[in-house]
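Deliverable D2.4 — example input (structure tokens):
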């Protein structure tokens, strides 16, 4: 069953460049965090639990994904 994303409030990172190479995230949905490609908004959406999203953000802030 596909979640209803009609009420999603999408936002882009303040670090997004003018080229449009970024993603948008909706964190206002109950029990769901949705992520999509800004250039292909109808192309598909990744969905995470709030706990999974928090773990990802903690990893980003902690440098876990730095090259």
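Example output (designed residues):
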């Amino acid at each position: 069953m596909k979640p209803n994303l009609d009420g999603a409030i999408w936002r882009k990172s303040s670090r997004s460049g003018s080229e449009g190479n970024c993603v948008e995230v909706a964190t206002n949905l109950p029990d769901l965090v949705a992520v999509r490609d800004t250039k292909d908004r109808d192309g598909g959406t990744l969905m995470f639990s709030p706990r999974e999203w928090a773990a990802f953000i903690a990893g980003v802030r902690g440098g876990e994904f730095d090259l």
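Strands lie at 11-12, 23-29, 32-37, 45-48.
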